[in-house]
Amino acid sequence: MKFDNAKFIKSCERPNDFPQYGYPEFAFFGRSNTGKSSLINMILGKKNLVKTGSKPGVTRLINFFTTDDPFSFADLPGFGYASVPLSVKKKFMPMIKSYAQNRKNLKLAFLLMDIRRIPGDFENEMIDFLSSLKIPTAIVLTKCDKLSANKRAESLKKITSVTGLSEDSFFFSSAHTGEGKKELRSLIKNSAGATTES
Fold first, then answer.
1. Can you give the pLDDT at residue 198?
2. Predicted TM-score of the model (pTM)
């Protein structure tokens, strides 16, 4: 799977404005600064397709991208650390939940967590929320290149303790080294193949 000719489609906030196509869609959820945009760039093989920044809160709307396969990808606003006006920040969670509730072609949600951070209420709420909607969810631990093997193992134990999930529930990734790219691409392919509507 090559994910050829990945391109930006549009940015929007409300379900009525979402692109109207039946492509299998894959969405990226997570706190601000967990690396959602960087991970999408890695998976799609285009370094600057999705706008990234050193400051949290770069993504403020839902950004849609497609590839020739055809697949669709949605980059959702981060939640938690964004240094944006409070009036804007208050829109993020309703926007995120409205997207998940209304996007019929959503095949798989990626919930990203920075492996160096202990998950909080947001992560557990999103796990429960996506589960309640029966949306398959892959939990991806990002920025794994930042930790040694020993530190990674320590962080994983803490994360499993907080989330109540087993260690094999997580995928490891690094947009810097490309770790996880093959596994996540295979997951996308398998999810689309198993659920794509005719």
1. 31
2. 0.88
